[in-house]
Give the backbone structure.
Amino acid sequence: MSTIKQNYPLVSIIVPCYNHEKYVNECISSIMNQTFKNFELTVIDDGSKDQSFKVLKDLQKKYKFNLIYQENRGISATLNRGIKEFANGKYVCFCASDDFWTLEKLDKQVTFMEKYPDLPMCYGNTYYIDDNSNPVNRVNKNLKGGWLFEEMFTFKLHPPVNYIFRTTIFKEVGYYDETVYAEDYYMNLKIATHHRIGYLNEYLSFYRINFTPNKIERINKILDSHLKVIEDYKTHRLYKKAKNRVYLNKLDWLSGFKTSKRMAIKNLLNATPMIFNKRYWAGVIKLLLFWN
């Protein structure tokens, strides 16, 4: 039974799906079995090339949610469409189709947001899992609420992507930039510029670590996207520090893959301002030890 009042407001849930036939059943089941029942679910298949849409049609017959198919437009465009066309609730949530939620996620987040009406969004902790939904030994550090712009901007803090938003915040700050791949970094900064961010000290979701063959391409797209977003804050006193952190991330992460050593080397010079950071030298050592 739900722990909150039955007259609590409507929550709109948007699930963007792309090539996740293996995982989307777990995602949708976790949503439909929430203890909080006052929600509407829209799933948008973004031009999947696998059997995702077929799986979704079968799930729709079982659960009766709103199902949309579109030609591939990317995550940011898909989220924008979800918000503008299908979000009728006071709150809106997104769930990637390869992730899933704890069953009391909505219950806990709506209760929290109703208690703190000045907050435009909140997030909680997450469990990390592999392709088979087994736990991965990874822990989020420094999670908290408050004025978080500078810590998020310089990557000292990265909130897990289990947010709930007041739907009105998008009319205030605008929608996702459809040219940006790292949509969460982009939107978090836009909101954190003007508002405190809420943190609920609870485990709310299961986040799947990406082990796919295109991982290097995905890492590069995320990091390049971070650099693009940072350019929106050129006048900020931490602008250079934020850029240096991205170059450090490029060096550290890409040096761990044989096929991306040359890409990592290109970031050695850009990352030199971080020479006193142990991650810089970890990246250099990986380049030297594993180069072939």
